[in-house]
Design brief:
CATH topology of the largest domain: Glycosyltransferase
CATH class of the largest domain: Mainly Alpha
Number of strands: 39
Number of helices: 21
Strand order of the largest sheet: 2-7-8-9-10-17-14-13-12
Distance between the termini: 84 Å
Radius of gyration: 28 Å
Strand content: 15-25%
Structural class: alpha+beta
Oligomer: single chain
CATH architecture of the largest domain: Alpha/alpha barrel
């Protein structure tokens, strides 16, 4: 059969829904505050110039090119290979010898030994791979391109490109549908019969992935589709396939080689699908079946997609105020440049906030036990070897990815994270036994889709840290505190308990304390005392470990009480070990000491644990054993835990700054809000946007990577801390300020405290006031609030979703004080702190008294 006979003549329009010329109106993105937009096409440079779409599993990046466009495509289970058992066969005796050396202060010797016998064999987990590109080449009449506009709409989760050539207006729309589990690219033109283009799939150029790397077939199918696939180079490979199909209204669709051609159509849609053997036994069959099964019209797919997305995204909104007409008229890149030098742009800040939620909805969707969480780059990647392998880095990054989930109404999106925690629990049990001779489970500072729990890399500041899963387990704790979901807690409790069991057996005695050994303060290095400048990272009993374990051990009785579990022997053992953890102490700079001894940091600032109050500043203040002097200092006026990053910056500004781009800046926004430093919170938000995000896409730059998604996630979570806080607890007591006393992790009789507008920067109110709707607090409360242009509360509504009691206050008043702003709650009373008696679905109205 000759090529020109393999043609589909399209006679119906049922799969598309015809669009007339009059319907192709100007997109007018300047009038839509929820659009990131530009009047210039992007380049092929991923992240800096390309917008991203995703449905939680498959994703794409598009630049809005005119005649040709190379669309990067991804499937989140396409990694570099199958599971590797990497536990070093000599690790257990090595660990025992390292423990001796660390106790003796022989840090260099311990690290040198660990680099041989502790590290994984091989050193690295699998890395996230790129699937390839969908190439689209479109034919146009002669003439210059005019009226160009491209956008991504975070209110609808739809992207677009529109421009005119030779008197004809052309438009493309891009979406990744979760309900239909497919990517769709719709092409229209204002003149009938003007949609001419062809598509092709490939794996990219030599300098990206190596031409046709892992590709074993690339063929046409059914006269309207192409499919490409292959497998990784493993004994047990990941088998993969990707395919695309054109459905057109009018004109002809045909295949030529491994291309699909569309000629003379009025409208056409490209549908893209991909699967791997992680989820499907026969990915190629699954791809072709899914493409052939597309029977709905594009307009119906679009409507279902927008409805599904808005049902999630619309749970919560935030308004910083109104931007000026001059600001609104500018493109997003122009506004991003101006925010650093001009007046605050409140609607641009609101867009940046919602972009973080858009990215989480696009990269983390519950579907099955095989749903995966977003990695260092979410689900988007355009190279075979992305920065840090595009892995799940769990000494800050994956944790921060989910920081906005609970407070901004996205709790159900954490399901993929919990899947990974369970997988790590199973893999980590073998690592705990073989490496440490311990029961329970352990994971170090990185993992992959297989839950690989062995040490990653050969990098002392990160590799020798066995607390990665312990940090991640705090998300289980927080999820229960926000949702009160006992079925969830019951499901996750075995994994939580396994982490406790490992810690109980792993910890050893040191000067009367029980400590982790070996360990590090993640990605930080100190100068060894009296060593002529030698450095090390390895230590024992680091403060981050102590705080993680204090939180984890303290939650055990709370979880047992919630689930009706009685295990007196285990509970007693946990309590005894908790009592032997080292207490907090001040270092030589007046901040919380990061290590058990005073060491001079090699490079002050912004390691994942330099803010050693990090975990607790983010999760919950905890009564921590300290000296009387330190206790007084840390409990007044707020809490027993301050972040060293902020304390040191306040006391020694020359030691710190905003930190590197990405997650460190997001962290300082969060800590500034939590620490009642509104001016710093505002300044850090502005620099995160202007210095640390790409002007054209608003995607966050990593410190050395073109894109690292955690900064986009951490920033909205940090912003919330200035508007509402719920990490503090009050001991159960009758109403009245004189009776109020703070309660902490491990205490069972306590009530959540909600602080309204605790740290609101003046700039976030000055442009007409502001409001938020749908923020969620611990204890299961849904809160709406508004404020005037002076930052004063106008009104707040608190809905009890679980029927719990709660205390409410405005601002920064310490628990037990009566000197703060008085509030009035209809039907409940007036005072600095007012207790609301919980009845499920009851709404309380709060105003300033």
């Amino acid at each position: 059969m000759s090529w020109y006979s393999r043609v589909t003549v399209v006679l119906t329009i049922g799969l598309l829904g015809h669009v007339t010329a009059e319907e192709l109106k100007a997109p007018n993105s300047a009038s839509n505050k929820w659009r990131i937009w530009d009047n210039e096409a992007g380049s092929t440079t991923a992240f800096t110039d390309q917008y991203v779409i995703g449905n939680g599993r498959i994703g794409a990046m598009f630049s809005g090119g005119q005649k040709s466009e190379s669309i990067n495509i991804n499937e989140n289970s396409f990694w570099s290979g199958s599971f590797i058992d990497r536990v070093n066969p000599d690790s257990q005796p090595t660990v025992q010898e390292m423990q001796k050396l660390v106790r003796q202060g022989k840090f260099t010797e311990a690290e040198d030994l660990g680099k041989l016998g502790y590290i994984g064999t091989p050193m690295s987990t699998r890395n996230y791979d790129t699937l390839g590109t969908l190439g689209l080449t479109q034919a146009f009449p002669d003439g210059n391109v005019t009226d160009y506009e491209r956008w991504i709409d975070v209110e609808e989760s739809v992207g677009g490109t529109q421009f005119s050539v030779g008197g004809i207006t052309f438009q493309r729309e891009y979406l990744a549908s979760n309900p239909d589990d497919i990517i769709a690219i719709n092409l229209k033109a204002s003149k009938p019969g003007s949609v001419d283009f062809n598509i092709r799939l490939d794996r990219g150029a030599w300098d990206v992935v190596g031409l046709d790397r892992h590709v074993q077939y690339s063929i046409a199918s059914n006269n309207d589709s192409i499919v490409m696939g292959g497998s990784t180079a493993d004994a047990r490979p990941i088998i993969w396939a990707a395919g695309a199909r054109i459905v057109a209204s009018g004109g002809e669709v045909s295949t030529l080689g491994d291309n699909v051609l569309c000629k003379g159509a009025d409208e056409a849609t490209v549908y893209f699908q991909s699967w791997t053997s992680y989820r499907k036994k026969d990915p190629k069959h699954a791809v072709l079946s899914d493409l052939a099964a597309v029977l709905k019209s594009y307009s119906d797919i679009r409507a279902a997609h927008v409805s599904d997305y808005q049902a999630i995204a619309g749970r919560m909104s935030l308004q910083f105020g109104q931007s000026t007409p001059e600001q609104k008229a500018l493109t997003t890149p122009q506004r991003m440049v101006n925010i650093a030098v001009d007046a605050f742009d409140p609607e641009l800040a609101g867009l940046y906030f919602q972009l973080g939620r858009y990215l989480l909805i696009s990269s983390s969707r519950p579907s099955s036990d095989l749903a995966l969480p977003p990695n260092l780059q979410g689900i988007w990647n355009n190279v075979a070897d992305p920065p840090w392998g595009g892995k799940y880095t769990i000494n800050i990054n994956l944790q921060m990815n989910y920081w906005p989930s609970l407070t901004t109404g996205l709790a159900d999106l954490t399901s993929p994270l919990n899947n990974l925690l369970k997988t790590m629990g199973t893999r980590g049990a073998k690592v705990a036994k073989e490496m440490y001779g311990c029961s329970g489970t352990v994971t170090h500072h990185n993992t992959d889709l297989w839950g690989d729990s062995a040490p990653q890399d050969n990098y002392s500041p990160a590799t020798f840290w066995p607390m990665g899963a312990t940090w991640m387990i705090t998300h289980v704790i927080e999820h229960y505190r926000f949702t009160g979901d006992k079925e969830f807690l019951k499901d996750m409790f075995p994994t939580l308990k396994a982490n406790v069991e490992f810690a109980l057996e792993f910890m050893t005695e040191y000067k009367g304390y029980m400590v982790t050994n070996p360990s590090v303060s993640p990605e930080n290095t100190y100068i060894i005392p009296n060593s002529n400048g030698k450095t090390a990272s390895i230590s024992l009993g680091t403060t981050i470990d102590n705080q993680l374990l204090w939180e984890l051990f303290g939650f055990v009785p709370e979880a047992q009480a919630a689930l009706g579990i009685r295990d007196d022997k285990f509970t007693k053992r946990v309590a005894q070990m908790r009592a032997k953890l080292p207490g907090l102490r001040l270092n030589q700079y007046g901040g919380i000491a990061e290590w058990i001894h005073d060491y001079e940091e090699l490079t002050p600032c912004c390691s994942p644990s330099q803010a050693t109050g990090t975990l607790l500043i983010w999760y919950q203040y905890i009564r921590y054993r300290t000296s009387p002097r330190l206790t007084k200092r840390l409990l007044t006026p707020l809490s027993p835990v301050f972040a060293i990053d902020l304390m040191s910056r306040q006391l020694f500004p020359e030691r710190n700054g905003g930190g590197p781009c990405g997650w460190p800046r997001a962290w300082t926004i969060a800590m500034s809000g939590r620490m009642f430093l509104p001016d710093i919170a505002h300044e850090r938000l502005v620099t995160q946007m202007s210095e640390c995000s790409w002007n054209k896409t608003m995607l966050n730059q990593g410190d050395v990577a073109p894109f690292q998604i955690d900064g986009n996630f951490g920033t909205p979570a940090g912003i919330v801390e200035s508007f509402i806080q719920s990490h503090e607890y009050v001991k159960t007591a009758p109403p009245g300020n004189a009776n109020l006393e703070a309660a902490y992790t491990g205490e069972l009789d306590k009530v959540t405290l909600i602080r309204l507008l605790p740290s609101l920067p003046a700039a976030w109110a000055a442009n007409g006031g502001g409001s938020f709707k749908g923020m969620i607090t611990r204890g299961g409360f849904k809160v709406d609030a508004s404020w005037d242009n002076k930052g004063k509360l106008k009104t707040a509504t608190i809905k009890s979703q679980l029927g719990n009691d709660v205390y409410v206050t405005i601002g920064q008043t310490p628990i037990g004080s009566s000197r703060g702003q008085s509030i009035k709650v209809a039907g409940q009373g007036t005072g600095t702190f007012v207790k609301l008696k919980g009845v499920k679905d009851t709404k309380f109205t709060v105003t300033a008294a």
